[in-house]
Amino acid sequence: MKLQKHKKFTTRDDNLLPLVNIIFLLLIFFMIAGVIQKQKELYDVQLASATIDEYVEREMHTLFIDDDGSLVLNDKAISSSNLSSELKKLGNKKDLIIAADGKLLTESLNKILLILSKNKINNITLMMDKND
Amino acid sequence: MTRISLTPIIDVVFILLIFFMLATNFQDFSKTDIKLSHDKAKAAQSDKRVFIIEFNSKEEFKLNDQKLSLDQIKSKIKSREQSDEDFLVVAKPSDKVNMQLTLSVIENLKKSKINNVMLGVTSDSPEDAYKLKKEKSTKLPMLEKL
User: Fold this and answer.
1) Interchain contact A118–B (C-beta under 8 A)
2) pLDDT tens-digit readout, B1-43
3) Which of residues 5-24 of B touch A (CB under 8 A)?
4) Cα→Cα distances B82→B46, B87, B140, Å
């Protein structure tokens, strides 16, 4: 009996197989390595880089301080003269994350920290870019 | 025999890939809880020994008014103190020090297992500062000179 010769099927798509492999690998990489979350708006603040992870996760208000001393509290631009009244509006929950620019000078930071102290905020959380 | 075309699956995978590339965020922030230490705080409120580390933008350090390098300061603190509960460290940057340097110093201290670091806040009014300086020289027995 004559065996039928095995026919090899080829389609135009076969040339795309290496590309599909790579795309799948990239897809798996992004799915596993990345975290889908809303990108935190940084308001042009270039955070200082350091890695100090001593933080208890809790609900907090965020205060951005740019290098020129301009402030953004909970996504709202405020002036330093209004900071005190804005802090009073927060009520009893006054846990604050401070995201200060790496170039911010201590003299500017001190003025803000003094306002925080006057509002009985003596524990803060500092946010920074993680070192690699 | 017919074979399934790969083109539709490639389309879907491409769309998924673009979605994940745009939606994923790799930026990672580090956060640390820190207490503020006031000039005005009365020393008598605490029995702990206080180490005040002052530094300027030239990275010149002083431990309780004594000029030392940061490494010397760290070894001095660690050699004197056994337990974290016995002492407090106040990092006090001068006016022209930027946030980057302040955080690097705090990071450096924490990496050396000096955990109870506070951030020093200086009073803004010169009058207050003068008063405090006067008080400090008379009322702070705990600021033991090393």
Assistant:
1) no
2) 667 777 888 888 888 888 888 887 777 788 888 988 876 555 5
3) 5-7, 9-10, 13-14, 16-17, 20-21, 23-24
4) 18, 9, 23
SS3 B123: coil
- Cβ-defined contact of A106 to B97 (cutoff 8 Å): yes
Look up residue B58 and give its DSSP letter: T
Hey, are the CB atoms on B30 and A128 less than 8 Å from each other?
yes
Q: How far apart are CA A105 and CA B96, in angstroms?
A: 6
- In terms of phi and psi (left: phi > 0; alpha: psi -120 to 50; beta: otherwise), the region of A131 is beta
ipTM for the complex shown: 0.72
Query: Which pair of structure tokens corresponds to residue A109?
Result: 């930071």
| Integer angstrom CA distances of residue A51 from A33, A55, B100, B111 | 20, 11, 12, 9
Read off the pLDDT of residues A26-56 as tens digits, 9 standing for 90 and up. Answer: 888 888 887 765 556 677 788 888 888 777 7
Q: What is the pTM of this model?
A: 0.72
Residue among A122, A13, A102, A87 nearest A50 (CA): A102
Cβ atoms < 10 Å from Cβ of B121: 24
E-assigned strand segments in A27-122: 35-36, 61-65, 71-73, 76-78, 96-100
**What are the residue ranges in chain B where pLDDT is below 50?**
44, 129, 132, 135-146
E strand map for B26-146: 29-38, 49-55, 61-63, 66-68, 87-93, 117-121
Could you identify the residue written with the tokens 């660690």? B78
Task: Show Cβ contacts of residue B99 under 8 Å, excluding neighbours closer than 6 positions.
Answer: A48, A100, A101, A102, A103, A104, A105, A106, A109
B96, two tokens: 């022209």
Query: Chain B, 80-119: which have a CB under 8 Å from a chain A CB?
Result: 93-100, 102-104, 106-107, 110, 115, 119
